[in-house]
Amino acid sequence: MKKLLLGTTALVGASFAATAAMAAPEVRIGGYLDFQAGFSSQDTDGWGPAPGIPTVATERGFGFATDTELLIRVSDKLDNGLAWSVKIELEADADTVNPGSNDNADEVSIVFSGSWGQLTLGNEDGPVDAKNYVGEAMISGIGVTGARGYRRWTDTKSFSNGLWVAGSDPSNTSDATKVMYYTPTIAGFQFGASYSASSKDNGSSRASDGAASEAFENYWELGASYDVKVSDDFALGFTVAGSKATSEAATAEDIKAWLVSAKAEFAGFTASIGYADDGKSGQVKGLGNTDVSGYAAGLKYTTGPYVVGVSYMHNKAGANAGNAAAVSSTAEYTADTFTLGAQYTLGAGLVMYADTWYYTNDSDRVRTSSENSGLGMLIGTRATF
Q1: Is the pTM here over 0.90, yes or no?
Q2: DSSP 187-217
Q3: Burial of 138 (0-12, 13-18, 19+ CB in 10 A)
Q4: DSSP for 294-348?
Q5: End-to-end distance of the chain based on CA atoms, in angstroms?
Q6: How far apart are CA 204 and CA 217, in angstroms?
Q7: How is the chain split into domains, by residue range?
Q8: For residues 171 and 257, is the Cβ–Cβ distance under 8 A?
């Protein structure tokens, strides 16, 4: 009888072990909904009154907008120590103008990780975006150069010359399909690299080979960072990143771009600064082009549920940068953006915020009809779940 009980116990234990080993991966569903009421007054007219609205003859100057995503995460860790996870970001905004245009995925990727580092396969931002301490990720919508509002409510692209609309934002693959690897962080240092066969590869959509695709192939991004905690309330970070790709169009320059950035955190303050140079990336060949470059800086302060922040961005480009119609190689385009923002956390996952900004761009010689300056402001609420 004793042997029978021991045998039965062993079988039951083995059954539980097998069940545990074959347990289903963890699935989490989350996302966010962002609602904005915005206002802008600017010189340029006819570009469209709000995100997603077609160009119209007269600028309305105010309106409402939403930004909504559904986030699905699946994760597990195998017995051999290999951890894996899947991320699916689904656009979920209503769209009565173009029904169905927003019910698609944004970033979709599978990540494998262990003591050896992290390998990402799929659609995800590369190291040039990730290793940028003055970009949108540094201060999410609070007085930063990529504020939640100003790019939606201001005509920032009246020049066809590649001027950036986010801080120190040189050419990169964005969410193009890629293979990406990050080393583990050792003594504060981390290195990352990504490769995309084509900048136009996007999920199930693959770009054709050749100039007709207007793409860049063999697209590499490299980035490195160093972060150090000097004391309990003082930390520093430094980054350098770059991108390189070959143009498939014989008339366009190859991609060669780089950036450096730094941040400091002390007693609730976070300051960041960055500089980037796009070179002649993507510009039309043979027009006497000059480099596209720029710098940006941001400062925010956090205390309890309150956050306030300010930022400034300046960038410049030669008259022919990305613009075959320009008639002068000596003119220069410049753009400046000032932002001020505040945020208040009402509770877990729920915030209210306000942003105001001033934007201006101009040329010292050509295409003056495309110059613009504008002042805007918005209030919004964001629920993250």
Answers
A1: no
A2: TTEEEEEEEEEETT-BTTB-PPSSGGG--EE
A3: buried
A4: EEEEEEEEEETTEEEEEEEEEEEEETTTT-TT---SS-EEEEEEEEEEEEEEEET
A5: 55
A6: 17
A7: 26-384
A8: yes
The pLDDT tens digits along the chain (385 residues) read 444 444 444 444 444 444 445 678 999 999 999 898 888 887 765 544 443 344 445 567 788 888 899 999 999 999 999 999 999 999 888 776 666 555 588 889 999 999 999 999 999 999 998 888 875 544 445 544 444 556 677 776 544 445 555 555 788 898 899 999 999 999 999 999 999 999 888 887 777 777 556 689 999 999 999 999 999 999 999 999 999 999 988 888 899 999 999 999 999 998 888 888 888 888 777 766 667 888 888 888 999 999 888 888 888 876 554 443 443 455 677 888 888 888 899 999 999 988 888 888 877 665 555 677 888 888 889 999 9
Tokens of 83: 């951890």
Q: Which of 108, 16, 69 is nearest to 385 (CA)?
A: 69
| Residue type, position 282, single letter | G
Which two structure tokens, joined as six digits, stand for 98? 């173009």
CB half-sphere exposure, 72, CA atoms < 13 A: 12
Helix (H, G, I), strand (E, B) or coil at 25: coil
Determine the residue type at 12: V
Provide the residue type at 238 as one letter.
F
CATH architecture of residue range(s) 26-384? Beta Barrel (2.40)
What is the distance between the alpha carbons of residues 163 and 376, in angstroms, rounded to a whole number? 20
Tokens of 10: 């062993």
Q: Which token pair is 337?
A: 């953006």
Sequence letter at residue 111:
V
Q: Across-strand partners of 360?
A: 336, 373
Q: How far apart are CA 195 and CA 181, in angstroms?
A: 9
User: Residue 221 is which amino acid?
Assistant: E
